[in-house]
Amino acid sequence: MTPMLVLTTTSSKEEAEKIAQALLKERLVACVNIIENASSLFWWQGKINTEKESLLFMKTTEGLFPKLEEKLRSLHSYEVPEIIGLPITAVSEPYKKWLEENLKENE
After folding, report:
1. How many degrees, rounded to 5, is the angle at CA 101 between CA 98 and CA 107?
2. CATH of the domain at 10
3. pLDDT in tens, 52-74
């Protein structure tokens, strides 16, 4: 089991919480941190945009990433949502054990 951190942004805290709840209920993630009012600057449709977004840090595993991505795309309001998965190369054993116990992979 390789732990993974998945990042996405949403247009609002409400959307972030809706996504977090859905992913938690399906045990595709074990934990979601939401940071409100992140300043995002990005290219979209040929111009630079600036928005306030909510940033989600989701803890899961590489094995669940495909299902998480599919579910996240179905819930997300953006045409091209940010879905970035980063393998976690160092993690404390107690946290890793907790992560394993709280994901769908172990049902």
Report:
1. 165
2. 3.30.70.120
3. 999 999 999 999 999 999 999 99
